[in-house]
Each structure stands twice: as C-alpha cells, then as structure tokens.
Specification:
Blueprint: H1 4-7, E1 13-15, H2 21-31, E2 35-40, H3 46-50, H4 52-60, E3 65-70, H5 76-83, H6 87-107, H7 111-122, E4 126-132, E5 144-148, E6 154-159, H8 165-169, E7 174-179, H9 184-198, E8 206-209, H10 211-218, H11 232-235, H12 266-277, E9 281-286, H13 292-304, E10 309-316, H14 319-331, E11 337-339, H15 347-359, E12 363-370, H16 371-374, H17 377-383, E13 390-395, E14 415-420, H18 429-439, E15 442-446, H19 448-453, E16 460-468, H20 471-488, H21 493-511, H22 514-526, E17 532-535, E18 540-542, E19 548-551, H23 552-561, E20 569-572, H24 578-590, E21 595-598, E22 613-616, H25 623-633, E23 643-651, H26 665-683, H27 688-701
Parallel strand pairs: 2-3, 3-4, 9-14, 9-15, 10-12, 10-13, 11-12, 13-14, 16-23, 17-21, 17-22, 20-21, 22-23
Antiparallel strand pairs: 1-7, 2-5, 4-8, 5-6, 6-7, 18-19
Helix pairs in contact: 2-4, 5-6, 6-10, 7-10, 12-13, 15-17, 20-21, 26-27
C-alpha cells in the first residue's frame, strides 16, 4: 500500500457541492493506507458506511488501524450534572453520560453497520478516545485527518467536515489537502498535534479512552462467526452499481445524452481529455475491465458538441461485441444500427438513416459493425457516400492492422479513436504501423497494475504448474524448431510463410501437450472448479506414441464430466448461437455450471465478472492474449475479493529429474520463453516475491540468461 500512487491525482481542496468526496478522496486514501488518524468534533457510526469503498480494503490491510478522537455530544443538563459533582467523581459521571449518549446514537444506526463497527472494535482495527474541555470552556471541535501508508508517507486534510453521514453527504463542507513532499512541514505539525491529543498531553483538554466502553456498548452486536465484508456493497448496498437506465423511446437518429447519475471516473476523464488535446485522434491503452466502452461513449458526447450532425461507426471484431456495444449505446439515448450477418438485415436501415440525417439540421446516428462487414463494399459505400462528419471507434483496435482491413479504413473520418489494452501487433510491425498511421499515437495509458492498485480490478494469486512434454512431443518440438530456424533465415517470402506456419504448429503442440489434461485433473482434485475458466489450445492432443487422440477442449470437457463426482463444465466456442452463449454465461453466475472451457472466443470482449479461477492450458506466448486473459478474470463482482490464476507451463521430459541440469539450446529456449510469460503473470500477483525467487533459481540452475 502506497499513498504515492494517488498523490498526483489528489486536489488541494475538496468541496461537497462540486466533488464526490467519498469516491475521489476517501476511497483511494483509505485503500492505500495502513493507519487513519482522525480528530473530529462529532463522529457517528453511519459515516463508516459512507466510506465503505475504502474501509473494506483498509481493514484487510495487515496492521491497519483507525485512531479516532471525537467530541462527546452533551447538552447543558449533562454538563451541569458533571460539574456539580466533586472533582474525583466527574470522570465517572462523564463516562456514564457519554455511554448513554453514544448508546442512543448507536440505536439509530443500521444493524449491518453496527456489526461492522463491532468487529472493528473487537479486532483492534479502531481505537476511540473522547475529548472535552472542562469548566464550560466550549467544546472540542477540531477537524484533522491523517492517512499513513506502510512506507510512513502521509496525506493530511483539515477543514469543516465532521466524521458523520451528514458531514460527508448532505452538508456543504470543504477541506484542504496536504501531501508530501510539498507540504512536509505542515504534515509534521499536524502529526505532532494529533499525537499530543492521543497521548492526552494537550493543555485545556481532558481526553479519555473510550475503547473499552464502546466494547460494552457494542457487545450486543458482536457475532463470533461474523466476517468483515468482502466488498463495499455488502456493507453499503446503496453503493452497488446500478444498471444504466435506458430511455423508454429510442430512435436511430437522436441526440446522445449521458445516463442520469453516470459520469466518467477520474482516469476515464483524463483519457478523454488527452484524446481531445490531440484533435480527437489517438489510441487509449486501457486494461481490460476498466471501462473502455463508457470512455468512448463519453468521448462521443464531446465530439457531438463540435458538430450538429454526426455519424459514429463502432468497429468490433465479433458479433457479440457489437451487441455489448449496442447495449451501452442505448443507455445514451440512441438506437444503434447493428451491421453484421446478412446484408438484407441492416443495409436498408443504415441507408435510410443516413438519408434522414442528410436532410436533418442535427442528430447523431451510430452503426455497430463487425470487422467482417466493415470491409464489405456495401458498408463502406454507404458511409463514404455522405459528407456527414464521421467518427470511427475501433474496438480491440489491434485487429484493424491485419490484412485488407487496415488499408480500407475511411480516410474521410475526422474523428478517430482506437481502444485496446495492447494495440501493438506482436511480430507484425507493418500492421502495427497501419494502426498508428490511421488512429494516431497512443495518447493515454491505464495499465493492469494501475487498475489493480486502485481496486478497479480484483487482485489475484498466480500459480505456475510445470508439465513435462512426452518424449515424442520433445522430439517433435526439436524438429520444428530446427525447421523454423532454416525457413526464417531465408529471404524467400514462401519460406517465411512456412516459418510462420511452423510457429503455429509448434504452439499447438505445446498448448495441447499430452500431460496437461492430467495435470489439470490433479489440480482440480486440490482446487475444485468454482466459477472457473479453462483456456484450451485449438490443437489436437497426441498420445505418447504420436497418435491423434482428440481436441484438447473435447478431451478436457469429457474427462471432467466423467470424473467422480462429475464436474459440470460447458464448452464456449465461437460458433455457439447467441441465446446459447447467454445461457452459458448465466449458468456460471447462478452456479448451474462450475466452469467454462474455451479456446479464443473469450480473449476479447466477453464479460463474465463472476469468474474467480482461470486454468490456462493454452500457454500463449502472445503478450496481448496473456494480458486479455488475465484481465478477463479480474473484473469486479459482488463477493469476489481474490482471483486465482493457474498456468500450465511445458518443460523438458526430464525437468523433474534432480540430476538433469544441463539443457540443450532448444530446451533452454523453450524454458526461457515459458518463464518470460510466468514472470509477467507473477509480477502483479499478490504472491509475487516467492514466485520470482523460484524462477530466478530455475534460471540459475539451467544457466538461462535474461533476454534469452
């Protein structure tokens, strides 16, 4: 946890009438802190719910502690009762009155919040002290907040806001923020002041420890079996994201409007601003699951402000992606035209709407089109037949650099936006350049690491599982490697094409390695399949003798369904019909199926947030596929606090033999390439350190150099 990750995005001042204080300040600060010190005039338990988005990860941080100094709520009768007592009885009287006062406040709070507060108190996550000024000298009304991370870095705020529900949500409040190193002297001063309060050394104040008294008050809400909430929605259901509203009446020609109550997150707004600064051209490199679709649609609102008429073309690789886009487009008030499959299904509607827009004074129309249909003369002919300003959005934009499609992108498009977690086409410099030539440079990046650190994506643990090749597979791999070296060195285009085919054949060989299925079954005996995804190779599994057995996906599904007890797992393939696709996804969410087996169709665009496990048999060396598969697993969902990634890594047949320490060049190359992928997965995992250490030991054992 590091506050350095967010200090650059914090403002110097926050106001409740213009800022979302909970989302933009409290949540990121609490998420990255291990200590939260707060001195306030008043504190109520309902405020805990309002900062739940931060408190949930805060209390899970090792050693986290909230220290609270607050003012007791006393009326004049209470004060008179105290001060009428002899000096030696005043403290006892005050404690009794405070207990009664706090008890009344507690009775008004929700049971859910009280359970959480009780757990915090009894688990030592919060300590409470109460401060008052004796002899009728006013009240303690100070407002200081100090966040401290594991590196002893601080964020301090001071202002009018109390730690109450009203203070955080309904009152007009403001506070100033101080960060290191710019405000170091002020931070030191506030820290010293709080410590004097906490240690009861502040003059003119009496401070009493109320932690034990609060335990007595909260004992009735304590449950031994209680566990802290796994996500923010469990504590505060009002924070659960609501589906975006859809207007009752939708037209293919309308004015885009943001859904009520929905606005871009700060990083999404930064992406939009960066793109606009480049004259509405460029590529957004945003990790899977960070809201590229909504970012693009909010960008469309900005473009719409620039021109009274607008034709938006959203290009996506697959039909199901177009359907997902269409779902969100409708929430912005426009009925999109879906362009795929038979020309008869979309051509007339697209042509008619373009004609209507030509004759109109203003309006926006949107076409969602697959890559295949986009390349057709009939589609390109229509969108190029009009002078209406054109905005092209390329989803999974790396696909638009392949073959013909990159050469026919409409030049007349004034506004161009590319979206991809990884826009660079691995091994295809020409295709990559085509993408950047058309859409422009990468103007904004929001990485997987940033998304995990900011709790936008789920943290994960990573486990590589080493699987030896059979003797036949090893011999075949060696043979293919030698052939590749021969063909790749040739200047003959046919030989180079042959080299590419050999790489594909070799990848299928290792991806569908014979022992992987058995290793998966063994792993599932220890880690039962539960909302899990098995990424399979498109290749065929070969017997140890080199005979064809079956496709890996068929073999995996059959083995699991025939296991004892049987495991309910479904196949998810490209040719699955739409309704069947929806059913398969629903079966995972409702528990009817324990998992899905897929090949590549889940690499791009299919959202199944409930997934908690991924078992990667198809050990792709394609960086983009690795990023997408990981991102697919890390989407947030209710009750999901951790994801688990199991990677089946192919090695030499004698890998596990203690005496086998010398590898041939092709064996070193195989292991080095597999470890490179493992290092990428391990680097962002929660169990990073032991994994990287183990990999370093392997490299040392087999004398593998970095970059090999």
């Amino acid at each position: 946890m590091s506050l350095d990750l967010i200090t650059g995005s914090l403002k110097q001042e926050y106001r409740s009438d213009t800022d979302n204080i909970h989302r933009d300040f409290y949540v990121p600060c609490l998420t990255n802190a291990v200590k939260y010190d707060r001195a306030v005039g008043y504190f109520t338990s309902d405020s805990l719910a309002l900062v739940a988005r931060g408190l949930v990860p805060f209390v899970s941080n090792p050693g986290s502690l909230m220290r609270l100094v607050a003012s007791p709520v006393l009326n004049l009768e209470d004060e008179k009762a105290i001060y009428d007592k002899p000096a030696d009885e005043q403290l006892q009287c005050l404690t009794k009155l405070l207990t009664e006062s706090v008890d009344k406040a507690i009775a008004k709070a929700s049971y859910r919040h009280l359970e959480f507060l009780s757990w915090m108190v009894f688990s030592g996550k919060i300590q409470i002290k109460l401060a008052y000024r004796p002899n009728h000298c006013g009240i303690f009304h100070e407002k200081i907040g100090i966040f401290t991370d594991s590196n002893n870095r601080h964020v301090v705020f001071t202002g009018s806001m109390n730690e109450t529900g009203a203070g955080m949500s309904s009152n007009l409040e403001s506070f100033d923020v101080y960060t290191e190193p710019a405000d170091l002297s002020r931070i030191k001063s506030k820290n010293a002041h709080f410590e004097s309060l906490w240690s009861q050394k502040h003059p003119n104040l009496t401070v009493i420890d109320f932690t034990d008294a609060s335990k007595a008050l909260l004992e009735r809400y304590r449950r031994p079996e209680y566990r802290p909430p796994k996500n923010e929605e469990e504590l505060h259901p009002e924070l659960k994201p609501k589906p975006l509203p859809v207007p009752l009446v939708l037209k293919t020609l309308a004015i885009l409007a943001a859904p009520k109550g929905i606005s871009p997150y700060d990083y999404q707004q930064e992406a939009i601003n960066s793109w606009l600064e480049k004259e509405s051209r460029g590529i957004l490199e945003m990790a899977t699951g960070t809201g590229k679709t909504l970012t693009a649609l909010f960008s469309s609102l900005k473009v719409q402000e620039l021109t009274p008429k607008l034709l938006i073309v959203i290009v996506a690789p697959f039909k199901h992606l177009c359907e997902q886009w269409a779902k969100d487009v409708r929430r912005f008030g426009v009925k999109p035209i879906l362009c795929y499959d038979s020309k008869d299904q979309w051509h007339r509607q697209l042509s008619t709407t373009i004609e209507r827009l030509n004759l109109s004074e203003n309006g926006t129309m949107i076409a969602c089109v697959t890559n295949a249909t986009f390349q057709s003369d009939s589609f390109l002919g229509l969108i190029n037949s009009t002078a209406i300003p054109l905005f092209v959005i390329g989803d999974e934009v790396h696909n638009l650099g392949a073959g013909k499609i990159g050469k026919i992108l409409p030049i007349r498009a004034q506004y161009r936006l590319g979206l991809s977690a990884t826009p660079v086409r691995q091994g295809d410099e020409e295709g990559t350049q085509t993408i950047f030539d058309y859409f422009g440079e990468s103007v904004y990046s929001f990485s997987l690491k940033q998304a995990i650190e900011r709790n936008i994506l789920t943290p994960y643990e990573y486990y590589p599982i080493y699987v030896p090749l059979t003797e036949w597979e090893a011999a075949k791999y060696k043979e293919l490697t030698a052939q590749y070296a021969q063909y790749a060195s040739s200047n003959d285009p046919e030989m180079k094409d042959r080299a590419e085919k050999i790489l594909f054949e070799r990848a299928n060989l290792t991806g569908a390695a014979y022992h992987k299925t058995g290793a998966l079954i063994q792993q599932l005996s220890k880690t039962p399949l539960d909302k899990g995804l098995v990424y399979c190779s498109p290749g065929t599994v070969m017997s140890p003798e080199g005979d064809e057995i079956d496709t890996q996906i068929n073999l995996v599904v059959t083995k699991l369904r025939q296991s004892e007890p049987p495991v309910t797992i479904s196949q998810f393939v490209n040719f699955v019909e739409d309704e069947e696709r929806k059913r398969l996804i629903s079966d995972i969410s409702n528990g009817s199926a324990r998992g899905l087996a897929a090949i590549r169709c889940l690499d791009e665009g299919v959202d199944i947030p409930d997934l908690k496990q991924a078992f990667i048999l198809a050990s792709s060396r394609n960086y983009r596929q690795s990023v997408q598969r990981r991102g697919r697993l890390l989407r947030r969902a209710e009750g999901k606090t951790m994801a688990f990634l199991y990677d089946f890594v192919v090695v030499h047949p004698l890998f596990n033999e203690p005496a086998y320490t010398t590898l041939l060049d092709w064996e070193k190359s195989l292991l080095a390439s597999e470890l490179k992928r493992c290092a990428e997965f391990a680097d962002l995992s929660m169990n990073r350190e032991p994994l990287l250490l183990a990999m370093a030991e392997l490299k040392n054992k087999y004398q593998i150099q970095d970059g090999q």
